[in-house]
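ok here's the first one, seq then struct tokens
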Amino acid sequence: MLRLWIMGLALLGVPVMAVTQLPGNAQCPVNCSCFFSQWFVQCANASLVSRPLGIPSATVELDLQHNQFSTLSAGFFPELPEVSTISLGSCGIRQVEPGAFIGVKNLFHLHLENNLLEQLPEGIFENLTNLIFLHLEHNQIANLLPGTFSSLKQLSVLDLSNNLLLELSDQALQGLPLLRRLYLSGNRISNMSSKALPGNLRALRLDWNQLVSVPAAVRASPMLATLQLSGNPIRKLTSLSFGRRLRSLSQLYLDSLALEQVTALAFTRLRRLELLSLRNNSLESLPSLSSLKSLSRLYLTGNRWRCDCSLIWLRTWQKRVLRKERSPVMCSSPQALQGRLLVNLELQKLTCPPYGMDSTTLSLPENTNTPMATAPSRDKPLARISTTAATTTSAALITTRSSASSTTFHHHVLERWDPCLADHISRVSIRTKGATSLVVSWSFSGDHDQFEVRYTAGRDEQVLRVMGRLAEVTLHDLRPGTEYRVCVIPQNENLLECQIPGTGQCSAEHTASLPSSAQPVHNQLGHSHSAVGIGVAAALLTLVALALVVTYRLRTRPIQFQRYYDEDGSLPHRRSSNRAKLPMHSVDQDMEDEHRQSHMTAASHCPEKVNCTVSTPPRSTSTPTYIAL
């Protein structure tokens, strides 16, 4: 009857103290509490200086934290075959001897955090082959001996944060095939071996260390999904910072790095990135992240943003995401926009040079022989030139993309509105200026300060972004003798949706051919050269007659290989001589055509049921640069 009463109290959660009878006539240790229903023995804050006596062999969880065990000697724990969790946090432990855990072979969780451990002797975890969680955070561990954890074949989580580690060798974490989470926050790590990390890591915390760059061991972790690097003195991120093997990375934290520069290709290989945090750095600008199709959360607060044309993509991106997921981007410069949120700014104020710059520091050159010096035609008069730099200076950002994708969204263009703003553009005219240049001018209605000029030749499309209410631009470095189709689109919030501009905002024109000195001569003979012409004609007639005689004699002979030309009923296979008559500029085009033909040939030999569609690679785009017009 007494035993049933005790079990009832335990089921209700009432602690049964030291005199409680446990199965097998075992008693709860002195100064401990035993919860019968959970097989939980709690001896926390009991002022113990040695192991409590009489721990039941059926114990599953043993809580010994907040006591005073300076040393865990060999055989510290008795035979506890059922125990799965032991908590020894905040016990002032300075030393753990090998064999201390010899009696707890089925341990899953071991807590040794908030102690005074300076080293981990070899063999102290030797028999813990089932251990899954090991907590060693907030100790004074300065180095890890090779093979310290090699017996922990099932270990999944290892927490070594807030210790005194200076480096991580390639042997420090060997023998951990199932390690998934590694926490190294708050150490002093400045150097890591390229082979220091296990290959199956999913989450890695290296924040608040002394790393000046992303370690090579991190870049070689293909299964890594979460990476925390905040608080390290990393000032610049380039295309080499993350490499090409981080194919699974979805969350990247780069807060408080004193980061000053991010190059255009820094994140382009992180195709699965969903969260990027760049808070509390020293960034003034950020290259476009449009290649990160999975990106949905971008945290950018606490930087010194310069709101100019380089952040147009960011404003457009923020307009698309939900308000609750939008990280506020506040302008620090120029002074005219200081303190304003980027997402609330009008597009015409995001200019290069920045809107509101003092006109005394920036003005047009006195020499007006440049292509952009001529006054463009406008439907509306310009403001006075001395008002702001935005009306006196224009800048352009040139990018290149394949026009093959321009028809991808042809059937998705909404009928309710026109993202190309075709009604705002009229009288697009083009005039030839030499063999490699075209001058494009247009008229516009509305208060537009920025335009996107798209010009296409064949499969290649290039984009020129014009700032500063200019309505004329010169396109340079074009191919001679080539027809270009040019479209002008006003900058607007929905510009990314403009795939098929209206016919009224487009026009076409050829560039001039190469000079006559670079082309074959086809002029008729003049009177002064008639004698020479007659002689040449006679010589040609003689050669033709001779050729006819030779051909007749050859055809009357039974030549065996004559059937080579029409053996399969196909057209004769002859070399064309037209290539010699092409201008010199066609060599590059021929190489492109040959490259494109190689893709077609590869696709034609593709096995069935396999998608071998190969698109012609677009021209590589270098880092965008702004060009004063």
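and now the second one, same deal
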Amino acid sequence: MEPVRLVRAVVILVVIFASGCGAHIPSGPALKMDQALLIFYNQLPQDMEVLYTSDYCYKCVYQRLVQVKANQQHVSAVISTKFTLSMQLESRKRNATLCRWSETYEEGGHYCVWIQKSDNSNNVTCIHTVDKRPHNSYMPILVAALSLAITALLFVAAPYVHRKCRTSKFAKAICCQKPQYSLDHDEAHAEDAEGSATKVKPTRLHSLDTFRGFALTVMVFVNYGGGGYWFFQHAPWNGLTVADLVMPWFVFIIGTSVVLAFRSMQRRGVGRLQLLHKITWRTVVLLMLGFCFLNYSPRDGPLSWSWLRIPGVLQRLAFTYFVLALLQTLCGHKENEEKAGQWWSPILDVTLYWPQWLIIILLETLWLCVTFLLPVPNCPTGYLGAGGIGDNGLYPNCTGGAAGYIDRWMFGDNMYRYPTCKEMYRTTQPFDPEGILGTINSIVMGFMGMQAGKIIVFYKGKSVHILCRFLVWAIILGISAAILSKCTRDEGFIPVNKNLWSLSYVTCMGCFSFLLLGGMYFICDIKGWWGGQPFIYPGMNSIFVYVGHSLLGFYFPFSWEMRFQASHWEWLFQSLWGTALWVIVAYLLYRKNFFLKI
């Protein structure tokens, strides 16, 4: 019977491919980005039901995609191409699964599934064919990456040629940086007490402003949509995308800048009361900016107090800055008061600040205890899932576990209304990624940045020691993240999760931050190979750029109503265009010596 079955299957395939699955149907519906058309042909005398789930969705319940009538000509469905889909065909009459498959469909393609018997037995097969080839959805980003690379190469080569010819003022403006004050932490520089009166060395760390500007530029890009690519958007729940990287980097740099800035002010004789006044003022301004100006946009319609969001990005940054600044003001050291030669000398940057470490350990212990021990009604204790249809649909109203429960108890409906898990996990509970419990780990993330600042202070002039310390911290944090997550997305002790700002997420981002800051420190400040352009300009005016793009980002010329929504070309161009305009604005403000300070 095996040769007969083989011949029969070959004949069926030849007939299908020769006829073409779309030959008997009208053109499908207009597809948008990240969509494909799936057409089902049922050649059996019974009704069928097609169910699906995304492989990215953790233990999600299968959802109904389409019902296929008996001997029906065709039925089509629009499907998402962002992630791999698992599908199964079930018989409504027998209530049995007839076939299963897992497939990564590509954008713009038309796919056909032929449902038929494979032989004289009751075995059913689902044969896949392609009626319309998908287009290359990654071509726009490849072209954009190549264009940006060529542009960057030209900007690197042009100043070199002009400098050789000594005829270009533009090259001098680009390559010869004057020490300036950054906007967020205008005192954030390492002062050099030595040097002659006639020649003062600029000792500002360009790597700090470059790192801050790089994080901000990527943040603006992803806020403009990132070209519509899923990896430039936040992960649905667990896992990492490019969009999940930028805010921890920003928090890390806040911590580093706090150490350098407050050390500079303390060396100038600024008292604690003055520092407390400055901390309070800056915190209040950031809170008001976040709450009053960035809470909603004209697209939301008239403002309603019933849904006015209380948490937010600037609110979290403000509170994080406040706690870190208090730690540095009340528990910091003006100078290195310990003498070398003691057994703890190699870790003075840790031991001198043991009160700060004690507070941070207590905060992290609080996060762990609340997360894993707080009873949540109708939810398992220590739950870290998205709820909804995840975890086999057992905990539909438990989104975020203890973190979500505390925020809903505190804020009610005054929270973020469109959490990243809503679409994939079909959640109904509100969840705010800038909630209360996650702010604790935001402080821990900023404290890691403070540790980087202490290393720069204690080992000033010893570049090798600074880089080695950065590498050691990166290794320690990276190993911690690997252990906590078990190097998996969903199966770890504590999964990497930006929505929850989980401990593994913080240690993972701390590892990346030390590596990135160390690399920029080596390239910009030690070797001087790169002045940080163009990222250094938004890095020096980050509050202006962030608030500006949040308020004006949806107005022309930064964005417009897109007309070609079937591909990524226009959306990617708009995202790059809007981001580039803000970098240009930051550069013009830099040339005018304007830096927004709060």
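notes on #2: The chain has 17 helices and eight strands. The first helix runs from residue 2 to 19.
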